[in-house]
Amino acid sequence: MVDTILDKKGGDLVLLDLRESAIFTDYFLICNGDSDRQLKALATSIAEEAKEKAKTIPWGLEGESANGWVLLDYGSLIVHLFSPAMRKYYNLEELWHDAHVVLRMQ
Asked: Is this structure's pTM higher than 0.85?
């Protein structure tokens, strides 16, 4: 999924390990998209790649690219796609500050 995000020019990528902090998932993968169109392309590409390569589909899909936030729930991994403004608003990295940062790419 990281490669898919990078291919679609997603930015400010962070992978948080929540295994010691949460019971509902193991990881958050968070990234920015600069526009509604880019967020939609990221969500579509991630879902297609996961289906093709990992033979899995999201358990849930929430939010809308037009609102600046899309969530794809794969059970042990939840992918958050944000506009920069919505990412700042939700501030998941601060909310889950005790999580271990596995990967950070600007």
From this structure: yes
Q: What is the DSSP string of the chain?
A: -HHHHHHTT-EEEEEEE-TTT-SS-SEEEEEE-SSHHHHHHHHHHHHHHHHHHH----SEEEEEGGGTEEEEE-SSEEEEEE-HHHHHHH-HHHHTTTSEEEEEE-
**Number of independent structural domains in the chain:** 1
Determine the pLDDT at residue 2: 86
What is the domain-level CATH number for residue 19?
A: 3.30.460.10
Report pLDDT digits (tens) over 61-80. 999 999 999 999 999 999 99
Bridge partners (DSSP) of residue 77 are 27
Domain that holds residue 64: 2-105
Over residues 9-55, the pLDDT tens digits come to 999 999 999 999 999 999 999 999 999 999 999 999 999 999 999 89
